Amino acid sequence: MLKKLAEMIKTSENIVFFGGAGVSCESGCKDFRSADGIYKMNYKYPPESVLSHSFFEMHTEDFYDFYRKYLCFPDAKPNAAHYKLAELEKSGKLKAVITQNVDGLHQLAGSKCVYELHGSALRNYCMKCGKFHDFDFVYKSSGIPKCECGGIVKPDVVLYEESLNNDIIEGAVNAIANADMLIVAGTSLTVYPAAGLIRYFKGKNLVLINKDATAMDEKFGLVIHGKVGEILSKM
Ligand code: APR
Question: Is the pLDDT of residue 143 over 90?
Fold first, then answer.
């Protein structure tokens, strides 16, 4: 399997990577749907409902409490998967990383072309004056983070019921449509529209690297069940 993956990478000139929370698990981050994932925790509200626009509106203080506790990983560092992808981009083989993660670890590892489908926790904006605030401004605040102007500072993260950025979707679709190899990793492929972007791939090598099986395994030419950092570090 690893030999086949290495061969595919060697013979491909236009690789695109599509990843999810599992890509950051070897950096110490939790994913959402694994047995020990964020959505499996018992919290005073069903965790998946907290990350929605209506919850943000109705229980703003609880939203930030949950967000700081469970969605922020201030000490996370890029792992072998992030570094290998940045290396493949530098060599000209990999054209884009498309991620559902908001942790900025791909850019920290050196990746330049990164489509953040669900936004980024590193960008936070005042809902009143639009002023930018960094990760620490929100992470180190208590209660509801407020801008100097009095407005609420909201993370630039796409919550349920909110739409994705059209330009980012367009860029991701174009990258996938032009790729000759698509590596999908660390995602349960259960959240749309993100998971639906895979259908735009028309190239030769469609690969899935995931710890657990997904409902879409049989759509892939090569499926490797394992840790993506470990696996890519051997490429
Ligand atoms: N290597 C490879 N795969 C891994 C690893 C790892 N080290 N660790 C976990 N995984 C796999 C798990 O088996 C799981 O199938 O990563 C997958 C993560 O799936 P989810 O937890 O569902 O995360 P994701 O697919 O990114 O969720 C998509 O759901 O709630 C929304 O906005 C949230 O962006 C998130 C979206």
Answer: yes
pTM for this model (two decimals) = 0.97
Q: Indicate which atom in ligand 1 lies nearest the CA of residue 117.
A: 34
- 59 tagged catalytic: no
* C-alpha 155 to ligand 1 mean position (Å): 21
Confidence of residue 1 (pLDDT cuts 50, 70, 90): confident
169-183 pLDDT, tens per residue? 999 999 999 999 999
With respect to residue 148, please indicate whether it lies within any of the assigned structural domains.
no
Predicted local confidence at residue 196, as pLDDT: 94
Q: With helix as H, strand as E and coil as C, how does the chain read?
A: CHHHHHHHHHHCCCEEEEECHHHHHHHCCCCCCCCCCHHHCCCCCCHHHHCEHHHHHHCHHHHHHHHHHHHCCCCCCCCHHHHHHHHHHHCCCEEEEEECCCCCHHHHCCCCCEEECCEEEEEEEECCCCCEECHHHHHCCCCCCECCCCCEEEEEECCECCCCCHHHHHHHHHHHHHCCEEEEECCCCCCCCHHHHHHHCCCCEEEEEECCCCCCHHHCCEEEECCHHHHHHCC
Domain, as residue range, for 107: 1-29+77-118+164-235
| pLDDT at site 71 | 94
Where does ligand 1 bind, in terms of residues with CB under 6 Å?
A: 20-22, 25-26, 31-34, 37, 100, 118, 185-188, 190-191, 209-212, 227-229
**CATH number (domain holding residue 93):** 3.40.50.1220
* Number of domains into which the chain is organized: 1
Q: What is the mean pLDDT of residues 187-216?
A: 95
